Amino acid sequence: MAKIKALSMAILVGMAILAGASPARAAGFKFDGSGVRPLSMGGAFVAIADDANAPYYNPAGLADMTCREETFTHGQGYDGVIKTNYIAIVQRHIGFSYLVQGADLESKTEGGIKINSMAERIYTISVGRKVYPDIALGANLNLLSLSAGGKEGGLGAGLDLSVLYRFNPALSAGLSVKNLAAEVKDEDLDTISTFGVALRINPTLLLAADINNKRDHGNGDRTIDYHLGAELTMLDFVTLRAGASDNYVGSGVGISQERWALDFAYLLKDSDLDAARDAFYISATMRF
Predict the structure, then answer these.
(1) At residue 116, does pLDDT exceed 80?
(2) Domains of the chain, start order
């Protein structure tokens, strides 16, 4: 028992060291996050990871799944330029997900206005397994695709690793490291390590906090981002959410029954109150 816990803690520390030592010639792939529920909670989800959004934030959470979930999320800014879609199918121990962020950019030419389409895609296989009753390990294998103007711009792959420690039903902690050895077109993606805690105050109120550590493009500078979120369940089927990060303030509402859920999130971006930069997300989830 003690050896397993010591090994898990060693993995946690080792992952953090790896993240801090990783190079950072970033090749894009910068997402606000994934999934309506986490986004409306400010992105604080690494210690929760209990639904179909777990692959993006902490695949170790798949070890605690009690049913199969299938979810679809669509989001876009009010300026309509950037659009994001997320599809995931998960069950206990394994999940498959697809995340794409695309933009249609206008450019002036002699013949008029030309539309250039760009897209970043992540295809992910996720696994999560218990190594002890309250400790789970997780991993993602990511296939990365970059395209521009309808042509393939580059392919790459990367690895995510994570740990989830549920101390008791009310308190949990998690650590994830994203984009280990991730590379597209000979450029390394930013490697991001995230540590988070989640506390269920009572059956209706959940609080969460994450801290991200990443290196900036090419210059090796470290950037620290904070994420705070809260979720309040009312009437057993209505959930209100709110959160904040260094980049946006989020809010949302969800309606759910045993087999389905509908969720909406609004993100107020840090953009000098320019509403065109704000974004909204909607999602539909089925449970089987």
Answers:
(1) no
(2) 2-287 (2.40.160.60)
Query: Which of 218, 223, 174, 185 is CA-nearest to residue 38?
Result: 174
> With bands split at pLDDT 50, 70 and 90, how would you rate the model's confidence at 220?
confident
Mapped onto helix, strand or coil, the DSSP state of residue 277 is: helix
> In the chain, which residue ranges form alpha helices assigned H by DSSP?
2-21, 36-40, 54-57
Cα–Cα distances in angstroms (integers) from residue 2 to residues 9, 10, 64, 201, in the given order:
11, 12, 22, 29
State the DSSP code for 36. Answer: H
Length of the chain equals 288
> Given pLDDT bands bounded at 50, 70 and 90, which one contains residue 13?
very low
The dihedral built from the CA positions of residue 39, 27, 16 and 88, taken in this order, carries a sign that is positive
**Cβ distance 120 to 139 under 8 Å?**
no
